[in-house]
Amino acid sequence: MIGKTPAWVLPVVALVALIWIVPLVGLVAISIRPLSETTLGWWSVGEISFTLDAWRNVWDRFPLAYAAWVSTKIAVISTLIPMIMAPAAAYAFHYLSFPMRRVLLLIIVNAFVLPNQVVVIPLFLLWRDLGMIDNMWSVIIPFAGLSFAWSVFLVKNYLEDFPKDLIEAAQIDACGPVARFFHIVLPNMLTPIAAVAILQFMWTWNGLLLPVVFLREELPLPALLARVQGVYDNNFDQVAVAAIITTIVPLAIFVVFQRYFTAGAQTKTGSKE
């Protein structure tokens, strides 16, 4: 029997939600109010008026549509690569026996501790020598490679609870390793694959360091946001507009697909009750 929820849970959850919502409300308020009214704080109510000048200025001065297209290309391709490769690698490490399997798995897991900043200079030198500076693939390859370790680890942890009876039944029916992967394991791994896709897409969409270092003309939205901010201009309203546009897509994707984070019990058996 499920016990009654304590009375203090609702106020605590409401307080946490309020803490998360307040900055979003502030961004919207700054973007639609004159800068003269929000200089001392967007929460000031002495004089309230609304304007879309900041939205027009940002749209006219900066190529937001093209930056959004670049962000979409980078995020989608960088997400598809680990979505395709991580399940196969996790299946091989979990179910197959091959030389140096434990050593390779240990190397992949240890890649968790490798900060992105460590690889920036070596990658910059490599891309410069190969003529790949200002090439979209100079960002996609590191995004996909740096996410491979945690993607494999996430999917492999899911396979720890995968029903062994299904694998054994497939072996009895003379299914080989490849057939077992495509017909038994892969159809029942929608939950971890979706989790990898959501986390990877949000990380690559919001990634700033690699695009700023490797790209010059084809800038995604986070890199363009850094240019909108400027150095000496007091343009908080335009920065707020760019921040809202940048966060709309990952926020919408998370809201739509968040159910996959809690859907593990439904997909492990390959059916929904």
Automatic annotation (TrEMBL):
The chain crosses the membrane at residues 7-32, 66-91, 103-127, 139-159, 180-203, 239-257. This is sn-glycerol-3-phosphate transport system permease protein UgpE. The complex is composed of two ATP-binding proteins (UgpC), two transmembrane proteins (UgpA and UgpE) and a solute-binding protein (UgpB). It is found in: Cell inner membrane; Cell membrane. It holds the Pfam family BPD_transp_1. It comes from Vannielia litorea. One of its GO terms (biological process) is transmembrane transport. Keywords: Cell inner membrane, Cell membrane, Membrane, Transmembrane, Transmembrane helix, Transport. The keyword Cell cycle does not apply. The keyword Cell inner membrane applies. Part of the ABC transporter complex UgpBAEC involved in sn-glycerol-3-phosphate (G3P) import. Probably responsible for the translocation of the substrate across the membrane. It is a multi-pass membrane protein. InterPro entries: MetI-like, MetI-like_sf. GO terms for cellular component: plasma membrane. Residues 68-257 form the ABC transmembrane type-1 domain. Its main location: membrane. Belongs to the binding-protein-dependent transport system permease family.
